[in-house]
Amino acid sequence: MNIMLNRREFLKFAGGGVAGGMAALVVGNKLSWVLENQAFAATVVQTLDFRITDAMKEMVTHNALNDARCYFWIYKSVTPDLQAEVPGPVIFATRGDTIRITLTNDLDEPHAFFIPGVFDSGPIAPGQTVTRSFRANNSGSFLYYDNLNSPVNRVMGLHGAFIVLPGIRRAPNKFTPYDLPTPAVQALFNDLGDAVHWPGLSWEEADVDPASLAPAFRQYIWLLHQASPNLFREVGSLPAGELYPAATFVNAFLRDPFSPTNANRTPQYFTINGQSGSLIHANPHITPNLRVGEPTLIRVLNAGLWTHSMHLHANHIYVIAVNGVVQANPIWIDVFNSNPLDTWDWLNPYMRPPDVPNARGIGMPDTPLMSLSNPLIPGSAPHPVWPPIEEINMLIPEGATAGGVPGGVPIDVQLSPLCYPEHDHSEPTQTSQGGNYNLGLIAGMNVTGDRNIDPAGVTTFPNAPNMWAANVTRLAAPQMPEHL
Questions:
Q1: Which superfamily, per CATH, for 1-168?
Q2: Which pLDDT tens digit goes with each residue over 270-287?
Q3: The whole model's pTM is what?
Q4: How far apart are the C-alpha atoms of 235 and 229, rounded to whole Å?
């Protein structure tokens, strides 16, 4: 079925919809490390140029038998001409940058571009183009979005991530993501890479050895959202210039009665960076693939209307900033609620998983305990429990097919590296269109090796994604001023 709305000429893209990716725009020339981080398809710009327009997107369950497209309003980068996507491009800037932005409204009602506490374009009339400037005065994780007819315009897709980095560190301390870290947050980052606490790399440290590549300033963005094809179609079908009542939108989005045929207006898709299911947890640009001893930052932003209870397996994480406030006492947790419009930063130290027993206790980077021999396994003998050779060597053998049907769907796979899920304890979000588990909002962390097993060098587990090889000559940490 072709979805036809009565007032839009939809943007046309490959495959008839919006493509999935996490494009990034780097303002200025100070953040060269972003270009080397394959988690972002980054382009350097001196100004921003966005069109406020619309598009159809093929969702995770779309196929020849199931028309699973959804209508969105989007921020589309014009220069450079990036592929359209929901959310909009990630914008990276350095504290102190002045950012110039041009906005053109191609839709039929007023729209805006808003960053809380930073910038407000004000209403932009249909057909109008405005150019404004604003200054990035504070580092941190911010949402940009359309704040008019709230929350309709934002939830319809007009949102993205705005990330501001400090350009300098305060010697002799190590870099943190903030201009003014609290003593506790600074102590955490000073301990990263320290042999006593977390041996391996500090957050700002890269490894350019081809056998053990790792970028500096490892970080990922998880932008949460929910999409309702039926409700979004209603909004898009209104006569030109008519606004959908915000209270009606919220009530339908959150409280429409259950429908076994998906005929209601509650969300059917729950996304991270616009993706769902395997397009998240099998994507090394969203789900970290790192070794023990390669700590990373995960920035979580919620552009939708649902509260998500985000639970990460394999490591506890430190909550180091919440809604722009760097924490005086970072809590160490494995689950944390993300409310609508929340932004918070996780520091994942990438320790050994907690089920690995070591001499000093769980997760510690020292001598692992010995396993017992298993009399049911021929040749089994006591051995260190880490590295986890049973898991690393486990596989579904080549030639295996679904149901054992000759010539059927191949299911052979090596079960390495070690994959751990991140999922939402709000269980409906784990599906798409009310279908099977694991088609919804689920990411994770994958352990691809360990920097602390072998004194002679770094250990990398089989089949680890080689994300950084293309930039091996450019992965070294950038040269930055040492102090204010």
A1: Cupredoxins -  blue copper proteins (2.60.40.420)
A2: 999 999 988 888 888 899
A3: 0.90
A4: 10
